[in-house]
Known about the structure:
- It is a single chain.
- This protein is of the alpha+beta class.
- 24% of the residues lie in helices and 34% in strands.
- It has 3 helices and 8 strands.
- An 8-stranded mixed β-sheet has the order 2-3-4-1-5-8-7-6.
- Strand 3 (42-47) and strand 4 (50-55) form a beta hairpin.
- It starts with a strand and ends with a strand.
Amino acid sequence: xxxxxxxxxxxxxxxxxxxxxxxxxLSGATSSPVEELxxxxxxxxxxxxxxxxxxxxxxxxxxxxxxxxxxGFHHIAYRTPDIRAExxxxxxxxxxxxDQEPRPGAGGHLVAFLHPRSTGKTLVELVQR
Length: 129
């Protein structure tokens, strides 16, 4: 991925309310307000460049992640000025796209994900602010 800048790193947690104080103390940053993203099945807050993800329902992707792996690193997000062009480029380079088209993400940004099968077992998110 040429020239993409890290936007944020996401950590899956069972409870934002329980996890947020730790990350605020560690970073000295105050978290953003909680935002619900029903289409993605999560509640999110940002503490600086760290995104905390809490599942909204027990059958959401983040809930399944927590069941399998427990709390911890979930994905890394890269910022791009043109997410559609980046998806086209990455698909042409052989990356497996989870999202063929961008979708609304936290903060009203456009997001799309690359499958971990094609990214060294790391879930990668693209973000267009």
